[in-house]
Amino acid sequence: MKKLLAILISAALLLGLAACGAAPENEGEGVSVVATVFAPYDFARELVGELGTVTMLLPPGAEAHSYEPTPKDILEIQSADVFIYVGGESDAWVADVLESVAGDVRAVTLMDCVELLEEETVEGMEGESHEGHDHESEAEYDEHVWTSPRNAALICEKIAAALCDADPAHAAEYEAKLAAYKTELAELDAAFAEIVANGARDTIIFADRFPLLYFARAYGLGYYAAFPGCADDAEPSAATVAFIIDKVKAEGIPVVFHAELANEDMADIVCDETGAVKRQFNACHNVTRSQFSAGVGYLELMWENTEVLKEALE
């Protein structure tokens, strides 16, 4: 990976030199923001509005865990006023890129915005198997920090602060947009809390990786899943599938979840064996190309989640 990054950075620098004399794309268009994945991209889009441009590096429809930067991505970061990334193992490449870029790029690391939760292996879940990692001595933190609306509010505060620093002339407007968006996040938070409080059960099933640790902790939900949220593996063993099937049957679980853009084979098997219905729970790491083109946002996706969660807890 280090060699690949060195090649990409060198290519980006050459492209940048070749483009010398040309005006930057965002010149005269206000503040420029680059985000790696969808959730912070959408937060920034809400806060920036017409005051600048916001770019997402992860292509719509792509799986975030397999993303690798291109020379064009590195140039985007280099020319940005604000760069937003998650942090953690999936963004290990960022440190080298930030060392290489010139200019005054303000970096916002999502995992520095909230209280982190260590990934956990619950009953029936297959553990992670990363080569070269000593899991007994190295804590691994779940990276899906935005899945809790409460965390989303904290993240937006940090993004707004970076925007105010980059573009102080419009600080009052960024603060006003932040206040309005936090009000909407608070309404979403209250809706989730009410659904959980009125639910007949407090456990959800994910026949997939589990990207909702922060969400589950925020609302006191228990869960069973095939893998932790950032697991490399995507194919569960027969024992894991059998455990999930038995758990759904034993507890009469009505809904089996999968995340967006995920392989749904395991969810299909579990539903076929149990009579449960399959539903998508949006983790908001990315959206499809059609959703991206339509301007679908975090709030819309999370409000969809309120409906499927209500069904799952009945």
Instruction: Report the oligomer.
Output: single chain
Portion in strands = 5-15%
Mean pLDDT over all positions: 88
Shape: globular
Structural class designation: alpha/beta
How large is the count of helical segments? Answer: 11
Any overview of this molecule?
The chain has 314 residues and is α/β, with parallel strands linked by helices. The chain has 11 helices and 8 strands. The strands form 3 sheets. The protein has a 4-stranded parallel sheet with strand order 2-1-3-4, with helices on both faces. The chain has a two-stranded parallel ribbon with strand order 5-6. α6 packs parallel to α11. The N and C termini lie far apart (46 Å).
Topology record:
Blueprint: H1 2-18, E1 31-35, H2 38-48, E2 52-56, H3 71-79, E3 82-85, H4 94-100, E4 106-109, H5 149-166, H6 171-197, E5 203-210, H7 213-219, E6 222-228, H8 238-251, E7 255-259, H9 265-274, E8 277-281, H10 289-294, H11 298-312
Parallel strand pairs: 1-2, 1-3, 3-4, 5-6, 7-8
Helix pairs in contact: 1-3, 2-5, 5-6, 6-11, 8-9
Short description:
The protein is of the alpha/beta class. The chain contains 11 helices and 8 strands.
Provide the descriptors you would attach to this structure in a database record:
single chain, 314 residues, alpha/beta, four-stranded parallel β-sheet, 14% strand, globular, disordered N terminus
